[in-house]
Amino acid sequence: MGITSSFNRDIVQHRFDAFLQEVEKMQIEMMQELGEKCVTEMRLNKGYTMQTGALLSSSGYSVFKDGVAIHTAFEAASGADSTAAAQGIKKGQSLAGKVGKETKGISLVVVAGEKYAVYVESKGYNVISSAEHLAQRELPRMLSELVSDIKAATE
């Protein structure tokens, strides 16, 4: 008389798929959190004086899954001219979409969508560089935390 399992392959596959979905959900939440931190960094530590608000309004992020935007966060800068803010938001979303559609897996795209953002940065003013440094610092820590959470869930 041998040992008989009380489960079948479909049950195991279902549990594994549910686990992978939970991990993906955690990755997406982590990317959203990092995106919010980057946008906060860009807005609080901008090195330039806002004129119309277009540049600051074009600053935001999108989270992508296999090239499809699943979360986008762009908003008008406080005190911005409404027309300039709307144009800035549109440019930021457009640039994030162009970059993000080429990504695989779960990706975070943080942008300053106005074409002159590079010019402002080149003059020594912070537009997006401090957010990039923040992401380079925070992402490894956040990934390590995610791995620890996954390991703890499997023990």
Number of strands: 3
Q: What structural class results from the helix and strand content?
A: alpha+beta
Oligomer: single chain
Spatially, the strands of the biggest sheet line up as 2-1-3
Based on Cα principal axes, name the global outline. elongated
**Count of helix runs:** 5
Q: Mind telling me the C-alpha Rg?
A: 20 Å
Question: Regions with pLDDT < 50 over 5+ consecutive residues?
Answer: none
What would you say this structure looks like, in words?
By secondary structure, the protein is α+β, with helices and mostly antiparallel strands. The protein contains five helices and three strands, in the order H-H-E-E-H-E-H-H. The longest helix has 36 residues, at 9-44. Strand 1 and strand 2 form a beta hairpin.
Labels describing this entry:
155 residues; alpha+beta; three-stranded antiparallel beta sheet
Briefly, what is this?
With 155 residues, this protein is of the alpha+beta class. The protein has helices spanning 9-44, 54-57, 82-100, 117-122, 129-154; strands at residues 59-65, 68-73, 106-112.
Protein topology:
Layout lengths: L8 H36 L9 H4 L1 E7 L2 E6 L8 H19 L5 E7 L4 H6 L6 H26 L1
Helix pairs in contact: 1-5
